[in-house]
Structures are given as C-alpha cells and as structure tokens.
Design goal:
The relative contact order is 0.22. α1 packs parallel to α2. The protein is globular. About 30% of the residues lie in helices and about 20% in strands.
Length: about 130
C-alpha cells in the first residue's frame, strides 16, 4: 500500500495523489472515503483509500471542510475519479479519536477494518462545492 500526501494539507495531497493515480484501473478499484463525522459534514475531515486494480493508495486525513481548501480539494478529487471511471465509492465513519490509529494500521488490518464498517456512498455529495 502506497501512502500519499500529508495530513491537513489538501492541495499538496491532491497533487501527490494525481501523480500516484497513474496506473490505477479505476473501473475495478474501490474508493473509500474515511471520515470522522457523518452527521456534521461541515466539520468533517477525510482520508482516502483506493483499493484494487494494480495498486492500493492511502492518504492521511487531508481533505474536507476541517482544513482550509479541503472541501474544494475533495470536490476536485471526486470529479477527477469519476472522470477516470471510478464507480465504486464507499464511506467509512470512525470516531475522531480513532482516525489516526486506524490510518497507521498495517495494510491487511486497515483493509479488513474499512471493509467491515464501510457503506456505499454517492460521490456526488462531495461535489456540491466544486468550481
């Protein structure tokens, strides 16, 4: 699993992720948005896990309204993933205190935990602030 980006740095993480996405087979991949808030999206932070295809990618919690420019970067990322053919989107909600511990798990444990708690999501809900 390749770790990409920096915590709380949406633009840096987005640019690094764009480079890392080369070679991902989007129609096969599952995109997991890992967040610390479900009912308060206006304060949420998001990490991203892309699983399947040729490689797995994981970002730290760098996206979402919790960070300056984070909501716009998340919208841009979702638009890019949809444009490239991603179709399987999931959201996993963890407690705010659990986020860091979860993201530092070994890849097999992280994937098992995310698969256990993730639910399908509509990627368009993250686009509402897109340019």
């Amino acid at each position: 699993m390749e770790r990409v980006g920096l915590r709380s740095a949406p633009r840096v993480t987005l640019e690094a992720l764009k480079e890392a996405l080369k070679g991902v087979r989007f129609p096969e991949a599952k995109v997991y948005l890992i967040t610390d808030w479900q009912d308060r999206r206006e304060r949420a932070r998001y990490a991203l896990l892309i699983h399947g295809g040729k490689k797995d990618l994981l970002t730290p919690d760098a996206f979402g309204p919790a960070f300056p420019g984070g909501e716009e970067a998340l919208a841009e990322l979702m638009a890019l993933l949809l444009e490239r053919g991603a179709r399987k989107f999931y959201e996993a909600v963890v407690s705010p205190g659990e986020m860091s511990a979860l993201l530092s798990l070994p890849p097999e444990e992280l994937l098992a935990r995310i698969n256990a708690i993730a639910n399908p999501t509509d990627p368009h809900i993250y686009l509402k602030k897109a340019a």
